[in-house]
Amino acid sequence: MSLINFMILFLSILLSGSLIFIFGKISKKSLKLILAFSGAYLFSLSLIHLLPEVYDSGGATIGVFILLGFFLQIVLEIFSEGIEHGHMHHHKEHTGHFPMAVMLGLCIHSFLEGMPLAHRFQDDATRDSLLAGIILHHIPVAIALMTMLMDSGIGKSKSIFYLTLFALMAPLGSWIGSWMSVTFSQDLSLLFDRLMAVVIGIFLHISTTILFESYEEHRYNVYKLLTILAGAGLALLT
Q1: Measured between alpha carbons, how far is residue 228 from residues 41, 130, 225 in Å?
Q2: Distance (Å, whole) CA 108 – CA 65
Q3: pLDDT at position 127, please?
Q4: Contact yes or no for 126/190 (Cβ under 8 A)
Q5: How much is the pTM?
Q6: CB 114, CB 238: distance < 8 Å
Q7: Is 109:76 a contact under the CB 8 Å cutoff?
Q8: Which of 195, 171, 122 shows the shortest CA–CA distance to 13?
């Protein structure tokens, strides 16, 4: 992956989280719509682009690794508390402290998503679509994370530090993947196919959780449907 793409991945997360300082806290409804758009894009991206390629090159047993990724995300959410799909929990009993388990789960999640970006896809456009999917997914996560950080009372400087740490994880995962490709002499294509399958499983868990989450307001569900169609349409065009 090029240096420009590394910077785009890093800065998109850092800047989107920093918007809290400019515009204040985003409403839950607005965040849910952003999540719905990114969830629809991830779901459509997985079905249209990622699954066909990974099954073509990784073989029939690749489904085992997709399941592994799906259930791995469930484990990660024990730590991250579901912030990947917009769940923000306020820990009033720990004012002035941010639960490090949330950061641990979120950073592992982001690191794993970044690793397949080093993969040599059959179609170069697939890597660009994957990069776009990670960015679209991480933008609302960064906003939710920054909201939780500020609400925890740890202060602005520490909040920015943790946001920067999160923003570094996906580029670091991609860099480690690239380093492995260059350093090891053996063919690592099967390894990266399996890593991609794990990430697809993660994407499927997150996107379906977002898409099937119900809301009480009928009018809001109409907005959500239109947003989902827009996200799916973008994936079809990329």
Answers
A1: 8, 18, 5
A2: 17
A3: 86
A4: no
A5: 0.87
A6: no
A7: yes
A8: 171
